[in-house]
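Lab notebook page, bench 4
Experiment: in silico fold of construct C2
Operator: M.H.
Input chain length: 460 residues
Purpose: comparison with the prior construct
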Amino acid sequence: MAQFTLGWEEWLSLPGLGLPAIRAKVDTGARTSALHAFAIEPFGPAEKPMVRFAIHPDPSDESLEIICSAPLKDRREVTSSNGETELRFVIETEVTMGDRSWPLEVTLTDRGSMAYRMLLGRSAIAEDMIVSPAQSFCQPELSFDSYRDTPRLKKHRRALRLAILTREPGNYSTGRFIEAAEARGHTLEVIDTSRCYMNIRAVGGEVHYDGRRLPHYDAVIPRIGASITNYGTAVVRQFESMGTYSLAGSEGIAMSRDKLYAHQVLARHRIGMPTTAFARSPKDSGNLIQLVGGAPLVLKLLESTQGKGVVLAETKKAAESVISAFRGLKADFLVQSFVKEAAGEDIRCLVVGGKVVAAMRRRGAPDDFRSNLHQGGTAEPVRITRTERDTAVRAARAMKLDLAGVDLLRGEDGPKVLEVNSSPGLEGIEKVSHKDIAALVLQHIEAKVAPRSPRSKRKG
Protein backbone atom coordinates (compact mmCIF):
# COMPACT_ATOMS: atom_id res chain seq x y z
CA MET A 1 0.00 0.00 0.00
CA ALA A 2 1.33 3.43 -0.95
CA GLN A 3 2.33 5.65 1.92
CA PHE A 4 0.08 8.57 2.79
CA THR A 5 2.10 11.70 3.66
CA LEU A 6 0.81 14.44 5.92
CA GLY A 7 2.36 17.84 6.51
CA TRP A 8 2.30 19.55 9.91
CA GLU A 9 -0.81 21.38 8.72
CA GLU A 10 -3.48 19.99 6.40
CA TRP A 11 -6.94 20.66 5.03
CA LEU A 12 -9.63 18.10 5.78
CA SER A 13 -13.42 17.79 5.79
CA LEU A 14 -15.88 16.28 8.27
CA PRO A 15 -18.86 15.39 6.03
CA GLY A 16 -20.83 13.78 8.87
CA LEU A 17 -20.90 17.15 10.64
CA GLY A 18 -21.59 19.20 7.52
CA LEU A 19 -18.11 20.77 7.60
CA PRO A 20 -16.64 20.74 4.06
CA ALA A 21 -13.38 22.47 4.96
CA ILE A 22 -11.29 22.64 8.17
CA ARG A 23 -7.63 23.59 8.48
CA ALA A 24 -6.01 21.29 11.05
CA LYS A 25 -2.71 21.14 12.86
CA VAL A 26 -1.18 17.63 12.80
CA ASP A 27 0.38 17.09 16.21
CA THR A 28 1.91 13.68 16.97
CA GLY A 29 2.72 14.92 20.45
CA ALA A 30 -0.99 14.89 21.30
CA ARG A 31 -2.75 11.56 21.63
CA THR A 32 -6.36 12.68 21.05
CA SER A 33 -7.83 14.85 18.33
CA ALA A 34 -9.79 17.98 19.21
CA LEU A 35 -12.35 20.08 17.36
CA HIS A 36 -13.23 23.68 18.14
CA ALA A 37 -16.76 23.89 19.52
CA PHE A 38 -18.82 26.25 21.63
CA ALA A 39 -22.43 26.34 22.88
CA ILE A 40 -22.00 22.61 23.52
CA GLU A 41 -25.27 21.04 24.64
CA PRO A 42 -26.13 17.35 25.17
CA PHE A 43 -29.66 16.21 24.38
CA GLY A 44 -31.73 13.19 23.57
CA PRO A 45 -32.68 10.06 25.55
CA ALA A 46 -30.20 8.39 27.90
CA GLU A 47 -30.02 5.28 25.71
CA LYS A 48 -29.19 7.32 22.60
CA PRO A 49 -27.51 10.58 23.70
CA MET A 50 -26.65 13.33 21.24
CA VAL A 51 -24.60 16.49 21.47
CA ARG A 52 -25.22 19.78 19.68
CA PHE A 53 -22.57 22.45 19.20
CA ALA A 54 -21.57 25.44 17.12
CA ILE A 55 -18.29 26.07 15.33
CA HIS A 56 -16.53 28.96 13.60
CA PRO A 57 -14.58 26.99 10.96
CA ASP A 58 -12.72 30.05 9.64
CA PRO A 59 -10.53 31.63 12.38
CA SER A 60 -10.56 34.95 10.49
CA ASP A 61 -14.35 35.15 10.17
CA GLU A 62 -16.32 34.61 13.38
CA SER A 63 -19.53 35.61 11.61
CA LEU A 64 -19.35 32.27 9.75
CA GLU A 65 -21.12 29.96 12.20
CA ILE A 66 -22.16 26.35 11.60
CA ILE A 67 -24.42 24.32 13.90
CA CYS A 68 -23.52 20.63 14.18
CA SER A 69 -24.87 17.60 16.01
CA ALA A 70 -23.60 14.07 16.48
CA PRO A 71 -24.13 10.94 18.60
CA LEU A 72 -22.37 11.30 21.95
CA LYS A 73 -19.79 8.52 22.38
CA ASP A 74 -18.25 9.40 25.74
CA ARG A 75 -17.25 12.12 28.16
CA ARG A 76 -13.72 11.97 29.51
CA GLU A 77 -10.96 14.01 31.06
CA VAL A 78 -8.30 15.27 28.63
CA THR A 79 -5.03 16.94 29.66
CA SER A 80 -3.83 19.63 27.26
CA SER A 81 -0.19 20.44 26.38
CA ASN A 82 -0.06 23.11 29.06
CA GLY A 83 -1.05 20.60 31.74
CA GLU A 84 -4.67 21.69 32.21
CA THR A 85 -7.27 18.94 32.58
CA GLU A 86 -10.72 19.38 31.04
CA LEU A 87 -13.79 17.15 30.96
CA ARG A 88 -14.79 16.95 27.28
CA PHE A 89 -17.55 15.42 25.21
CA VAL A 90 -16.31 12.81 22.75
CA ILE A 91 -17.86 12.04 19.36
CA GLU A 92 -16.90 9.79 16.47
CA THR A 93 -17.22 11.06 12.92
CA GLU A 94 -15.74 10.47 9.48
CA VAL A 95 -12.74 12.50 8.36
CA THR A 96 -11.86 12.94 4.67
CA MET A 97 -8.47 14.05 3.41
CA GLY A 98 -7.78 13.90 -0.29
CA ASP A 99 -9.26 10.64 -1.62
CA ARG A 100 -9.10 8.89 1.75
CA SER A 101 -11.71 8.68 4.52
CA TRP A 102 -11.61 7.01 7.94
CA PRO A 103 -13.48 7.10 11.27
CA LEU A 104 -12.12 9.58 13.80
CA GLU A 105 -12.70 9.95 17.51
CA VAL A 106 -12.59 13.62 18.41
CA THR A 107 -13.11 15.65 21.58
CA LEU A 108 -15.01 18.94 21.65
CA THR A 109 -13.41 22.00 23.22
CA ASP A 110 -13.34 25.74 22.74
CA ARG A 111 -10.33 26.50 20.53
CA GLY A 112 -11.48 30.02 19.74
CA SER A 113 -8.08 31.47 20.65
CA MET A 114 -6.21 28.93 18.50
CA ALA A 115 -5.01 29.49 14.93
CA TYR A 116 -6.30 26.03 13.95
CA ARG A 117 -9.88 24.94 14.56
CA MET A 118 -8.82 21.31 14.73
CA LEU A 119 -5.96 19.31 16.19
CA LEU A 120 -5.22 15.93 14.62
CA GLY A 121 -3.60 13.71 17.27
CA ARG A 122 -1.49 10.59 16.81
CA SER A 123 -4.40 8.21 17.52
CA ALA A 124 -5.99 9.49 14.29
CA ILE A 125 -2.93 8.63 12.17
CA ALA A 126 -2.87 5.15 10.63
CA GLU A 127 0.25 2.98 10.37
CA ASP A 128 0.70 3.70 6.67
CA MET A 129 0.65 7.49 7.23
CA ILE A 130 3.83 9.49 7.50
CA VAL A 131 3.94 12.94 9.06
CA SER A 132 6.57 15.24 7.58
CA PRO A 133 7.12 18.09 10.09
CA ALA A 134 8.93 20.22 7.50
CA GLN A 135 6.07 20.15 4.97
CA SER A 136 2.64 21.80 4.77
CA PHE A 137 -0.49 20.77 2.89
CA CYS A 138 0.76 17.57 1.31
CA GLN A 139 -2.87 16.66 0.59
CA PRO A 140 -5.26 18.63 -1.68
CA GLU A 141 -6.11 22.07 -0.39
CA LEU A 142 -9.69 23.10 0.32
CA SER A 143 -11.29 26.51 0.83
CA PHE A 144 -13.65 28.17 3.28
CA ASP A 145 -15.55 29.35 0.20
CA SER A 146 -17.15 25.89 0.17
CA TYR A 147 -19.35 27.03 3.08
CA ARG A 148 -21.08 29.41 0.68
CA ASP A 149 -21.75 26.50 -1.66
CA THR A 150 -25.43 26.00 -0.71
CA PRO A 151 -26.09 22.83 -2.81
CA ARG A 152 -23.17 21.10 -1.10
CA LEU A 153 -24.37 22.05 2.35
CA LYS A 154 -27.89 20.82 1.64
CA LYS A 155 -26.59 17.27 1.24
CA HIS A 156 -25.92 17.13 4.98
CA ARG A 157 -28.75 16.55 7.45
CA ARG A 158 -27.97 16.96 11.12
CA ALA A 159 -29.92 15.79 14.15
CA LEU A 160 -32.33 18.39 15.47
CA ARG A 161 -33.58 19.21 18.92
CA LEU A 162 -37.32 19.81 18.61
CA ALA A 163 -40.26 20.46 20.91
CA ILE A 164 -44.00 20.06 20.42
CA LEU A 165 -46.22 22.44 22.38
CA THR A 166 -49.40 20.60 23.31
CA ARG A 167 -51.74 19.83 26.18
CA GLU A 168 -52.60 16.44 24.63
CA PRO A 169 -49.40 14.34 24.79
CA GLY A 170 -51.28 11.12 24.08
CA ASN A 171 -53.19 12.07 20.94
CA TYR A 172 -52.56 10.66 17.47
CA SER A 173 -50.85 13.71 15.95
CA THR A 174 -48.40 14.10 18.82
CA GLY A 175 -47.48 10.42 18.64
CA ARG A 176 -46.92 10.58 14.90
CA PHE A 177 -44.67 13.62 15.15
CA ILE A 178 -42.59 11.82 17.79
CA GLU A 179 -42.32 8.70 15.60
CA ALA A 180 -41.34 10.71 12.52
CA ALA A 181 -38.75 12.76 14.42
CA GLU A 182 -37.10 9.70 15.97
CA ALA A 183 -37.12 7.83 12.65
CA ARG A 184 -35.13 10.70 11.13
CA GLY A 185 -32.62 10.82 13.99
CA HIS A 186 -34.08 13.86 15.78
CA THR A 187 -35.15 14.35 19.38
CA LEU A 188 -38.62 15.73 20.09
CA GLU A 189 -39.66 16.82 23.58
CA VAL A 190 -43.34 17.15 24.55
CA ILE A 191 -44.05 20.41 26.39
CA ASP A 192 -47.36 21.32 28.07
CA THR A 193 -47.95 24.84 26.74
CA SER A 194 -49.97 25.96 29.77
CA ARG A 195 -47.10 25.12 32.13
CA CYS A 196 -44.51 27.24 30.34
CA TYR A 197 -43.50 30.50 31.99
CA MET A 198 -41.28 33.20 30.56
CA ASN A 199 -38.47 35.53 31.49
CA ILE A 200 -38.98 38.45 29.12
CA ARG A 201 -36.01 40.75 28.65
CA ALA A 202 -34.23 42.61 25.88
CA VAL A 203 -31.28 40.22 25.72
CA GLY A 204 -31.32 36.53 26.61
CA GLY A 205 -35.04 35.92 27.09
CA GLU A 206 -35.95 32.50 28.44
CA VAL A 207 -38.77 29.98 28.58
CA HIS A 208 -39.02 27.91 31.76
CA TYR A 209 -40.93 24.69 32.30
CA ASP A 210 -41.41 22.42 35.29
CA GLY A 211 -38.76 24.25 37.32
CA ARG A 212 -36.06 24.40 34.66
CA ARG A 213 -34.98 26.71 31.89
CA LEU A 214 -35.72 25.14 28.53
CA PRO A 215 -32.73 24.72 26.18
CA HIS A 216 -32.50 26.17 22.71
CA TYR A 217 -34.64 24.20 20.27
CA ASP A 218 -34.00 24.19 16.55
CA ALA A 219 -37.76 24.29 16.00
CA VAL A 220 -41.06 24.04 17.84
CA ILE A 221 -44.31 22.49 16.60
CA PRO A 222 -47.20 24.41 18.18
CA ARG A 223 -50.44 22.51 18.79
CA ILE A 224 -52.24 25.34 20.59
CA GLY A 225 -55.76 24.56 21.78
CA ALA A 226 -58.54 27.13 21.36
CA SER A 227 -58.99 27.47 25.13
CA ILE A 228 -55.45 28.84 25.57
CA THR A 229 -54.95 30.68 22.28
CA ASN A 230 -53.78 33.95 23.85
CA TYR A 231 -51.33 32.36 26.26
CA GLY A 232 -50.20 29.81 23.70
CA THR A 233 -49.36 32.45 21.12
CA ALA A 234 -47.43 34.37 23.81
CA VAL A 235 -45.30 31.28 24.45
CA VAL A 236 -44.70 30.82 20.71
CA ARG A 237 -43.72 34.50 20.40
CA GLN A 238 -41.17 34.00 23.17
CA PHE A 239 -39.58 31.09 21.33
CA GLU A 240 -39.56 33.14 18.12
CA SER A 241 -37.82 36.04 19.91
CA MET A 242 -35.09 33.58 20.94
CA GLY A 243 -34.42 32.60 17.32
CA THR A 244 -36.33 29.30 17.30
CA TYR A 245 -38.21 28.40 14.12
CA SER A 246 -41.93 27.81 14.71
CA LEU A 247 -43.85 25.60 12.29
CA ALA A 248 -46.91 27.77 12.91
CA GLY A 249 -45.94 31.35 13.71
CA SER A 250 -47.62 33.21 16.57
CA GLU A 251 -49.14 35.72 14.16
CA GLY A 252 -50.56 32.97 11.96
CA ILE A 253 -52.07 31.12 14.93
CA ALA A 254 -53.75 34.31 16.17
CA MET A 255 -55.10 35.20 12.73
CA SER A 256 -56.49 31.77 11.92
CA ARG A 257 -58.08 31.30 15.36
CA ASP A 258 -60.02 34.60 15.16
CA LYS A 259 -62.62 33.82 12.51
CA LEU A 260 -63.52 37.46 11.90
CA TYR A 261 -59.89 38.47 11.48
CA ALA A 262 -59.24 35.42 9.30
CA HIS A 263 -62.06 36.27 6.89
CA GLN A 264 -60.90 39.87 6.69
CA VAL A 265 -57.41 38.64 5.77
CA LEU A 266 -58.81 36.25 3.15
CA ALA A 267 -60.90 39.06 1.67
CA ARG A 268 -57.87 41.35 1.54
CA HIS A 269 -56.02 38.72 -0.49
CA ARG A 270 -59.03 38.23 -2.79
CA ILE A 271 -59.46 34.58 -1.80
CA GLY A 272 -62.92 33.13 -2.41
CA MET A 273 -65.12 32.50 0.64
CA PRO A 274 -68.85 32.45 1.48
CA THR A 275 -70.44 35.89 1.82
CA THR A 276 -69.80 36.87 5.44
CA ALA A 277 -71.35 39.50 7.72
CA PHE A 278 -70.68 40.62 11.29
CA ALA A 279 -72.30 43.09 13.66
CA ARG A 280 -72.29 43.81 17.37
CA SER A 281 -75.64 45.49 17.97
CA PRO A 282 -78.79 43.32 18.24
CA LYS A 283 -80.62 46.02 16.27
CA ASP A 284 -78.68 44.95 13.16
CA SER A 285 -79.81 41.31 13.15
CA GLY A 286 -82.22 41.77 10.26
CA ASN A 287 -79.61 43.61 8.21
CA LEU A 288 -77.09 40.81 8.80
CA ILE A 289 -79.47 38.23 7.41
CA GLN A 290 -80.14 40.41 4.38
CA LEU A 291 -76.43 41.01 3.71
CA VAL A 292 -75.75 37.29 3.17
CA GLY A 293 -78.75 36.80 0.91
CA GLY A 294 -81.28 35.58 3.46
CA ALA A 295 -81.99 32.08 4.74
CA PRO A 296 -80.79 29.41 4.69
CA LEU A 297 -77.62 30.70 6.30
CA VAL A 298 -74.87 29.58 8.67
CA LEU A 299 -74.04 31.14 12.03
CA LYS A 300 -70.60 30.58 13.58
CA LEU A 301 -69.25 31.48 16.97
CA LEU A 302 -65.93 33.26 16.50
CA GLU A 303 -64.16 30.86 18.85
CA SER A 304 -65.73 27.60 17.67
CA THR A 305 -63.60 24.57 16.75
CA GLN A 306 -64.23 21.12 15.25
CA GLY A 307 -67.70 22.15 14.06
CA LYS A 308 -68.94 23.13 17.52
CA GLY A 309 -70.81 26.44 17.69
CA VAL A 310 -71.80 26.24 14.01
CA VAL A 311 -75.55 26.31 13.26
CA LEU A 312 -77.55 26.10 10.03
CA ALA A 313 -80.66 28.26 10.09
CA GLU A 314 -83.01 27.20 7.29
CA THR A 315 -85.51 30.04 7.72
CA LYS A 316 -85.33 33.70 8.64
CA LYS A 317 -87.27 33.04 11.84
CA ALA A 318 -84.82 30.29 12.85
CA ALA A 319 -81.89 32.61 12.11
CA GLU A 320 -83.37 35.36 14.27
CA SER A 321 -83.89 32.87 17.09
CA VAL A 322 -80.27 31.64 16.98
CA ILE A 323 -78.96 35.20 16.77
CA SER A 324 -81.03 36.10 19.82
CA ALA A 325 -79.62 33.10 21.71
CA PHE A 326 -76.04 34.01 20.81
CA ARG A 327 -76.68 37.61 21.87
CA GLY A 328 -78.03 36.36 25.18
CA LEU A 329 -74.76 34.50 25.74
CA LYS A 330 -72.85 37.68 24.83
CA ALA A 331 -71.01 35.64 22.22
CA ASP A 332 -69.55 37.11 19.03
CA PHE A 333 -70.49 35.30 15.84
CA LEU A 334 -70.43 35.48 12.06
CA VAL A 335 -73.31 35.08 9.64
CA GLN A 336 -72.46 33.39 6.33
CA SER A 337 -74.31 32.46 3.18
CA PHE A 338 -75.10 28.75 2.85
CA VAL A 339 -73.44 27.10 -0.17
CA LYS A 340 -76.19 24.68 -1.20
CA GLU A 341 -74.24 23.06 -4.03
CA ALA A 342 -71.63 21.79 -1.54
CA ALA A 343 -74.32 19.36 -0.32
CA GLY A 344 -72.83 18.84 3.13
CA GLU A 345 -69.34 18.15 1.77
CA ASP A 346 -66.09 20.03 2.08
CA ILE A 347 -62.47 19.40 1.10
CA ARG A 348 -59.62 19.46 3.59
CA CYS A 349 -56.33 20.39 1.93
CA LEU A 350 -53.19 19.92 4.00
CA VAL A 351 -50.57 22.52 3.10
CA VAL A 352 -46.96 22.00 4.17
CA GLY A 353 -44.33 24.55 3.23
CA GLY A 354 -46.45 26.15 0.52
CA LYS A 355 -47.50 22.86 -1.12
CA VAL A 356 -50.69 20.81 -0.88
CA VAL A 357 -49.37 17.40 0.20
CA ALA A 358 -52.73 15.65 0.68
CA ALA A 359 -56.45 16.25 0.32
CA MET A 360 -59.64 14.49 1.40
CA ARG A 361 -63.36 14.99 0.88
CA ARG A 362 -65.41 15.00 4.08
CA ARG A 363 -69.14 14.24 4.21
CA GLY A 364 -71.39 15.11 7.11
CA ALA A 365 -73.30 12.56 9.12
CA PRO A 366 -76.91 11.96 7.99
CA ASP A 367 -79.05 15.06 8.58
CA ASP A 368 -75.97 17.13 9.53
CA PHE A 369 -74.64 19.79 7.18
CA ARG A 370 -71.31 19.90 9.03
CA SER A 371 -68.64 17.63 7.56
CA ASN A 372 -66.20 17.62 10.50
CA LEU A 373 -64.90 14.15 11.35
CA HIS A 374 -65.28 15.04 15.04
CA GLN A 375 -69.03 15.43 14.44
CA GLY A 376 -69.45 11.98 12.91
CA GLY A 377 -68.52 12.82 9.32
CA THR A 378 -66.72 10.45 6.95
CA ALA A 379 -63.76 11.03 4.64
CA GLU A 380 -62.44 9.71 1.35
CA PRO A 381 -59.59 10.55 -1.04
CA VAL A 382 -60.29 13.28 -3.59
CA ARG A 383 -58.53 14.71 -6.61
CA ILE A 384 -58.51 18.49 -6.40
CA THR A 385 -58.33 20.93 -9.28
CA ARG A 386 -55.47 23.31 -9.97
CA THR A 387 -57.67 26.20 -8.84
CA GLU A 388 -58.48 24.47 -5.57
CA ARG A 389 -54.81 23.71 -4.99
CA ASP A 390 -53.86 27.32 -5.70
CA THR A 391 -56.60 28.61 -3.39
CA ALA A 392 -55.44 26.41 -0.52
CA VAL A 393 -51.82 27.49 -0.92
CA ARG A 394 -52.76 31.17 -1.11
CA ALA A 395 -54.95 30.87 2.00
CA ALA A 396 -52.14 29.27 4.02
CA ARG A 397 -49.71 31.91 2.80
CA ALA A 398 -52.13 34.72 3.68
CA MET A 399 -52.33 33.31 7.23
CA LYS A 400 -48.53 33.02 7.38
CA LEU A 401 -48.69 29.32 8.20
CA ASP A 402 -46.14 26.71 7.05
CA LEU A 403 -48.53 23.95 8.18
CA ALA A 404 -52.25 24.49 7.65
CA GLY A 405 -55.45 22.58 7.11
CA VAL A 406 -57.46 24.58 4.59
CA ASP A 407 -61.17 23.69 4.35
CA LEU A 408 -62.83 24.43 0.99
CA LEU A 409 -66.35 24.26 -0.38
CA ARG A 410 -66.93 23.62 -4.06
CA GLY A 411 -69.16 26.50 -5.09
CA GLU A 412 -70.69 27.17 -8.50
CA ASP A 413 -68.30 30.08 -9.01
CA GLY A 414 -65.18 28.34 -7.69
CA PRO A 415 -63.70 27.15 -4.39
CA LYS A 416 -64.62 28.99 -1.21
CA VAL A 417 -62.45 28.86 1.91
CA LEU A 418 -64.36 28.01 5.06
CA GLU A 419 -61.50 27.95 7.53
CA VAL A 420 -57.72 27.78 7.86
CA ASN A 421 -56.63 25.56 10.75
CA SER A 422 -53.19 26.22 12.29
CA SER A 423 -53.12 22.87 14.15
CA PRO A 424 -54.66 20.36 11.72
CA GLY A 425 -55.03 16.80 12.97
CA LEU A 426 -53.08 14.11 11.13
CA GLU A 427 -55.16 11.02 11.86
CA GLY A 428 -57.95 11.42 9.32
CA ILE A 429 -55.85 12.66 6.42
CA GLU A 430 -53.02 10.14 6.94
CA LYS A 431 -55.44 7.23 6.99
CA VAL A 432 -57.35 8.47 3.94
CA SER A 433 -54.38 9.54 1.82
CA HIS A 434 -52.06 6.71 2.98
CA LYS A 435 -49.26 9.30 3.15
CA ASP A 436 -46.74 9.81 5.91
CA ILE A 437 -47.72 13.42 6.57
CA ALA A 438 -45.67 13.62 9.78
CA ALA A 439 -42.51 12.75 7.83
CA LEU A 440 -43.30 15.41 5.22
CA VAL A 441 -43.64 17.97 7.99
CA LEU A 442 -40.28 16.91 9.45
CA GLN A 443 -38.68 17.21 6.01
CA HIS A 444 -39.96 20.77 5.79
CA ILE A 445 -38.55 21.60 9.23
CA GLU A 446 -35.18 20.14 8.18
CA ALA A 447 -35.16 22.32 5.07
CA LYS A 448 -35.83 25.36 7.25
CA VAL A 449 -33.25 24.80 9.96
CA ALA A 450 -30.85 21.97 9.00
CA PRO A 451 -28.38 22.66 7.76
CA ARG A 452 -28.56 26.15 9.10
CA SER A 453 -27.37 28.65 6.52
CA PRO A 454 -23.91 29.92 7.47
CA ARG A 455 -24.03 33.46 8.77
CA SER A 456 -21.24 35.33 7.08
CA LYS A 457 -20.84 39.07 6.69
CA ARG A 458 -19.51 40.31 3.40
CA LYS A 459 -16.19 42.01 3.78
CA GLY A 460 -15.34 45.31 2.15
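Observations: The two ends are 48 Å apart (CA to CA). Residues 452-460 have pLDDT under 50 and may be disordered.
Next step: discuss at group meeting.
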